[in-house]
Amino acid sequence: MKRKRKGSITVFISLSLASVLLLFFLLLDLARIQGQRKKADLISDIAAQSVFADYNRYLWDNYRILGVDASYGTGGGADFSLMESRMQEYLIKNGLSADTKGRDFYQLTTEVCEVSKYVFLTDDSGRAFLKQAAEQQKSEIAADAVKRTKDAIEQIKESRNENGDVEKMVDDGSSAMEKSAKNSETETQGNSEEYTKPGPDEVNPIEQIKEWKNNGILSQVLPSSTKISVKKADLSETVSKRTLSKGSKASEEKLSASEKILFAEYEKSHFSNYRKNLGHDGLNYEWEYVLCGKDSDKDNLASTVSKLLVAREVENYASLMADEGKIAQADTHALTLAGWTGNTAIINAVFWGLTAAWAYTESVLDVRLLLSGGKVSVFKSSDEWTTDNLLELADWFDVNKKAKECGIGIKYEDYLLILSGMQSQKTLGLRSLDLLENSVRMQRDYENLRLDQLVTGADFKYRYSSVPAFFSLFALSDRNFPTMKFEKTKKMTYLTK
Hints:
Layout: H1 11-52, H2 57-63, E1 68-69, H3 80-96, E2 109-120, H4 123-138, H5 143-163, H6 166-183, H7 205-213, H8 217-221, H9 257-270, H10 286-292, H11 297-321, H12 324-338, H13 344-371, H14 412-421, H15 425-440, E3 454-466, E4 484-493
Helix pairs in contact: 1-3, 4-9, 4-15, 5-9, 5-11, 5-14, 6-7, 6-13, 9-14, 10-11, 10-15, 11-13, 12-13
């Protein structure tokens, strides 16, 4: 028969055991709190990244640009409560569900889940868009290529400053001759006896060029059989024309010269142009639109050709003025046309007009070559020059005749790259976004998309709460233990820096 024995412990032992257990459960709760901090950080990161994974697929597939539509297809403006609801869903899927089987000792309750700051794709004249595009090209374009483009831009700017407006020289030369003709009957004193007034059959390249230019810019450089896109776009509500929604994280940072050239390289790869059709919806000559901003492909091409002509005129004029033989031809014919006046100012004006007319003709031939896919040297040597005789410029008006192909030169797209590098950040950004929005809104389900609702960067704020799980076992009453709070912030952006 078993004997029953009475046992007892001292008060000291009781208090000691209680203290040990209290310390043990306190340590458990502290370990749990550290785990909850890690969990809060992890699920906050997952929620933020999941929201940013909802980027517009069309823009990525066609233009490699990332952005989340904050209106979620409604077109009614950015509604960040929708984005916050999506984040809440992701939080629940990753550990906050009330349906967790058993007891989750790391369970958290969400008190705050909000978007505190945000950046739209169109903010600061499309800075986020320009930065994204430029970053893509950094790994594809060598630093030497960027430097060569920068040098070419500086050369053109310097030459333009030195040589002035070449086409104005043609007009000034023509005006000088008209003035001398009007004054010839009344102001005969000072006329040179060495030269006689030229007859009506005397070749006058200045007047020939002026008459030729009246035919229209495209008719000078493209055969009539050339198929030119007739597409048009409604620009009344484009990004560059309307009042845009603005984000709450404004930045004054400007694109560097290198970043601007990298963006131009992006245009070369991702925008259609006269020489390359990428099959995007909307305008066919996308790059030309960014340069000129017209509402039709034809007008954008014509304006681009005009810009090319101006650039080539400046370069060709510099090359011509470095050639003594060509200067001698122009000087001789200036005396033939205006030497009879004995007026040095008139003779000089005619000389400059002749050299400008010559440079213009050579430039037209260059543009024809560029449009056909050929290469032209930025600054030509004598051997690369096509029009050798000043008095035979009219022979080159035939639109099928082109400049000599240059072995070392640049193509049409390279010239567009240079012209883009000379544009302002605002023009580059907003006109490019015009194209993207016009193209994406032609797609099913994206008809209401507005790029000034596309988020490219955001700050997210979270606050979670939790009550002690182990320490509360020692509660001697029904009173509530203090709630633990965990606050987290996440900064998200599609930019690498």
